[in-house]
Known about the structure:
Layout: H1 2-5, E1 8-14, H2 20-31, E2 39-41, E3 49-57, H3 64-68, E4 72-80, E5 82-84, E6 93-95, H4 104-112, E7 116-120, E8 129-130, E9 133-134, H5 135-140, E10 150-163, E11 166-173, H6 179-189, E12 194-204, E13 207-208, E14 213-214, H7 226-229, E15 235-238, H8 243-247, E16 252-253, E17 263-266, E18 269-277, E19 280-286
Parallel strand pairs: 1-14, 3-12, 15-17
Antiparallel strand pairs: 1-3, 2-3, 4-11, 4-12, 5-6, 7-10, 8-9, 10-11, 12-13, 16-19, 17-18, 18-19
Amino acid sequence: MIYQEKCGVCLVNKPVGYSSRYVLVKACEKLGLPDPSKVGYAGTLDPLASGLLILLSGVARKLQDYFTQHSKEYIGTVFFGASSETDDREGPIHLHPNPKIPSLEEVSLSLESFQGKIWQKPPKYSAIKIQGKRSHKIARSGESIELKAREVKIFSLQILDYEYPRLSLKIHCSAGTYIRSLARDLGNLLECDGYLESLCRISCGSFSLDNALPLEQLMPESLIPLQEILKNHPKLILPRSCWSKIRNKQFIEISESSHDNPLLWIEDKLVALGRIKAGFLVAESILMPDLFQTPKPPEPDILVKQDL
């Protein structure tokens, strides 16, 4: 059964210079997963970015949105005095003819305007789909595109180091935030232009880069069972009598819960992801549909009477 054999989560330390897809395929080889199409991500990283890449195998892919929705932390370097058509160092790069050199105080004050809920326009060279096509493919074909701004949330921006033209930042932000856009918009606000020179994802929710392995160290045992990696996440432990309603995605009245999307456990088994609304619980993703299923009795031997 795939849940027992090939379901799990792998935390990979993605190197710079490789696409997330390349890392996924190579990781599958190391993990002993023969079909990369049955493995997904909880948020990709650009080729020029490094850091935590969460791979989901088998039934774990049903929790892709659950893993992806968590806030992220990054360490990034912004390069001032130039702009980039890709908003990172891939370029082409265009030097500002007469950039203003901002002071540390000016940079700090400008960063305040990016904290909290903000509207952000994604880079043209991104994986966002426009009428079924990736925007980066449309942009590379020479077509003119305009992406709509969307709301994101930046919880904190910490200056780690600043010596013009480089600014090192630690960023804690919501899922869907583009650090390339942050670098571009900060440079525009400071009237000196800017692009993202480097980026490393150091956490996604409770998952840390400290616990991730580089590609060359991966082995089949690096695939962490889903129940193990999520054992300390918000959960509801339900009696076995609830299983039928969970499996059939029927509403269960519930008195209270501190989380809107708890993991649902029966006894010692993680069985589903739930959603709570208006005092009712319903399962969104079933992880073990065959749990507690009564095996069919063996077919009785049928004696065929033969005419002699």
